[in-house]
Amino acid sequence: MLAAERQQRLLDDLRTFGRITAADAAEVLGTSTETIRKDLILLENRGLLRRVHGGALHLAPMTFEPDVATRNENVDEKERIAQAAVAHIPEGGAIVIDAGSTTRAFVERIPDLPLTVYTNALAIATALAPLSRVSVSTFGGLVRPSTTAQVGPIAMRAIESMHFDMAFVGTNAISAAHGLATPDPDEAAMKAALIAHAESAVLLTDHTKFAQRSLVTYAEVTDLDIIITGTELDETHRAELAEIDVEVEFA
């Protein structure tokens, strides 16, 4: 079992039972108590649990894979964010678009102009297919049913030789302290690659993601060039962003 999978299992058990012991977790997961202890230290440092003698306590709700109803929340805000993002499209350029509900709203507003688009989401590729002047490609790889995102070694190898003008990405969670995070290790690796292989990176995220935590950090806020979010974002998080060298647009 990979470390990220083991840590997710620990968080799942904490969410279910409220408390776990290192000894019980080690027995169930087939590893040593020392390994579990190190996992708990790492997760506590990320603000995801509170360690106590012999184990850990559930600290706060985690961001897991959202269901369809959750993805349909904040629709008006996501539409405003999507419309604002259209202004950043480099006509005639090459962009890459991440999987997600806000990025899906974005592609529905992309005009039929000369543009090369790569995406790791089948739903996004399908939405862009009718545009005759937009060239659309996917990376291949394993498709995750919950997000239609393509992940895994095939997708990762495909992106290695590419360089994009701009990446439009989403996130499950964002904070100044913990960066951008998502529940799935494979999607985290893909998101990190999209950002790394783009000249500039634009994050499209509604304000509720600033109050979330998730398992796998895939980028720091400083890795972004632009954050587009809703005017609903509270003053505390606005102040945190003001301290970071990143452009923020409120839609």
Can you describe what's shown?
The chain is an alpha/beta fold. It has two domains: 3-58, Winged helix-like DNA-binding domain superfamily/Winged helix DNA-binding domain (Arc Repressor Mutant, subunit A); 68-250, Rossmann fold (3-Layer(aba) Sandwich), CATH 3.40.50.1360. It is 37% helix and 24% strand. The protein contains ten helices and 15 strands. It has helices at residues 3-17, 22-29, 33-45, 68-71, 75-86, 101-107, 122-128, 153-159, 185-196, 235-242, and strands at 19-21, 49-52, 55-58, 94-97, 115-119, 134-138, 142-143, 150-151, 164-169, 173-175, 179-182, 198-204, 216-219, 226-229, 247-250. A seven-stranded parallel sheet has the order 6-5-4-9-12-14-15, sandwiched between helices. Strands 1-3-2 form a three-stranded antiparallel sheet. Strands 10-11-13 form a three-stranded antiparallel sheet, with helices on one face. β4, α6 and β5 form a beta-alpha-beta unit. The longest helix is centred in the N-terminal third of the chain and has 15 residues, at 3-17.
